[in-house]
Specification:
With about 375 residues, the chain is an alpha/beta fold. Helix content is about 50%, strand content about 25%. It is built from 10 helices and 6 strands.
């Protein structure tokens, strides 16, 4: 019974697949109908319905692609051969799929488009090559970047159509040369190592791998840069110590106090209440810093954009002590009371904690600004 049931299920699936190919044909999905018919014939050669679907669908599919090719060929679109290549490729894929069925030759006569496809690819590559040269000759960086991608498109149709030297030329012409300048006019920063902040920003930004971006240091280029990024720590503040003290009165009942003798001479345990003052101390130092990023046009020296990134850091330490009976304290309060008063951190350390986030945030900002050069 199980075997018969399996046969019934497989037959139902097969009939559904055949019907699916016919439905695709009736709905005008001729390419899909061809692929489904070939698959059915591979599973069951000489299947009459699949043969019929294959013959009709292939003829209609080829006619449809050829009509689109003829329409594109009559247009004045510079890149009309792109569309023609896609249509010829679709016919070629249909042919390749049908050839997988050994008996295809008796069913359909394939329309060979090999020569037409080669010709169209060359014409498409030539069109993109010419467009790239036109754009490159404008001597405008954005147009040079467009030219680079036109050259890539030409090579997509015909590998090697555009030489590596021509691609490099377009890339170089479209590359934005950016200089990073660091300034520190505030005398406050003389006591702090701002070079660490600046060098981290420079090394991280220079590591940005955008196709049309080159980050250089001042004096590294003979000619004027396209853009100057001015970075300055224009504010930093390390506040004084904010000290607070909080006294908590504690009482605990039913605390074992010892033993006592009653009037009758009986020894009994004595319980009572104990008290203590639990004293919490807190030291806080609030710090802040601000990084200014200014984009300046390298040719006109005009400010293109100004962006400020703030940062803050709070150093906080707590400790405690007590007066009275320590049995009034909880175990956690007792542990905390064993802490000693912390030392004030070094200002350089506080400065480093405050400015550390500025490096990552400034890099994220700069990379976002130049992401169009990827």
């Amino acid at each position: 019974m199980k075997r018969n049931y399996l046969i019934i299920v497989l037959s139902a699936l097969f009939l559904a697949a055949c019907s699916s190919g016919k439905n695709r044909l009736e709905n005008g999905d001729y390419d899909v109908a061809v692929y489904k018919a070939v698959k059915r014939l591979q599973q069951k050669p000489d299947h009459k319905k699949a043969e019929k679907v294959l013959r009709e669908a292939y003829s209609l599919a080829v006619n449809g692609h050829m009509a689109k090719i003829e329409y594109a060929d009559k247009s004045n679109n510079t890149f009309k051969y792109d569309r023609m290549v896609n249509e010829y490729r679709s016919i070629a894929r249909l042919n390749n799929a049908i050839r997988k069925y050994p008996k295809y030759a008796k069913l359909v006569t394939l329309t060979d488009v090999t020569d037409e496809l080669i010709y169209s690819k060359n014409q498409a590559a030539e069109a993109h090559f010419r467009e790239g040269h036109t754009l490159l000759n404008m001597n405008v960086k954005q147009r040079s970047r467009d030219a680079y991608f036109q050259f890539l498109e030409a090579n997509r149709f015909v590998p090697g159509f555009v030489s590596i030297e021509q691609l490099d030329k377009a890339q170089e012409a479209g590359t934005l040369n950016v200089v990073l300048e660091f300034s520190n006019n505030n005398s406050f920063f003389r006591d702090f190592n701002t070079d660490v902040v600046y060098s981290n920003v420079l090394s991280s930004f220079r590591g940005t791998r955008y196709r049309f971006l080159r980050v250089v240091e001042p004096g590294e280029m003979d000619s004027r840069p396209d853009e100057i990024i001015q970075i300055e720590l224009d504010e930093a503040h390390i506040g004084g110590v904010d000290f607070s003290r909080n006294v908590i009165e504690l009482t605990k009942d039913d605390v074992y106090m010892g033993e006592a003798e009653t009037d009758s001479g009986e020894i009994v345990e004595v319980y009572g209440s104990v008290t203590a003052d639990y004293i919490e101390f807190c030291k806080t130092i609030s710090t802040r810093a601000r990084l200014m990023i200014q984009r300046v046009d390298g040719k006109t020296a005009g400010v293109m954009q100004r962006h400020v990134i703030p940062s803050s850091y709070n150093w906080t330490e707590k400790w405690a002590t007590y007066r009275g009976d320590k049995r009034a304290l909880s175990s956690s309060q007792l542990d905390f009371a064993r802490r000693s008063e912390p030392s004030i951190p070094n200002p350089d350390w506080l400065f480093a904690q405050t400015t550390r986030p500025l490096v990552g945030q400034s890099i994220d900002f700069l990379r976002g600004q130049f992401s169009y050069l990827r």
